[in-house]
Amino acid sequence: MFFEFVEMILISHRGNINGKDIDRENHPKYIDEAITKGYDVEVDIHMTEDGFLYLGHDGPQYRITQDWLDKRVDKLWIHCKSFDAMRWFTLIDRFNHFWHQEDDFTLTSRGVIWTYPGKETTPKSICVLPEKNNEKPKKCLGICSDFVVNYKNNEE
User: Fold this and answer.
1) Strand blocks (E) in the chain
2) Is the pLDDT reported for residue 155 higher than 90?
3) 133 within a domain of the structure (yes/no)
4) How many CB atoms lie under 10 A from the CB of residue 119?
5) How does pLDDT run across 44-89, given as a tens digit for each residue?
6) How many domains, in total, are found in the chain?
7) What are phi and psi of 46, to 5 degrees?
8) What's the whole-model pTM score?
């Protein structure tokens, strides 16, 4: 299953749109604020040994349900942070998900190239955190940024 896009996809990194807010990153309400403002959101998801899903970067922080995910299915880019999360999302197979650490790129479940900061992009790539290298995103399908609001009016 492939995405078909007409304009550049703007993805909020963990809910951030105008700079990092570490205390709110991956919080369900923060994610909803970004979605309400028209952005997709990259989220970090863990699954614990007892089978519960949690948002959180370095570990499980905010418990969520499949219903919560279902209501946002078209707006989330799910970064699986544990093997159990990756296995679960692969079995469900309706959510856009991926796994990576420091790979130059990885392929999402919907056939989009998730590109590590500073690496070369293609028209099928998401340019991740271009602000880390002061790069101007080019030849890409979308941008995932802590400052995604800066690209809202500058879509190329």
Assistant:
1) 9-13, 40-47, 53-55, 62-64, 76-80, 97-98, 105-107, 113-115, 125-128, 142-145
2) no
3) yes
4) 15
5) 999 999 999 999 999 999 999 999 999 999 999 999 999 999 999 9
6) 1
7) -110, 150
8) 0.92
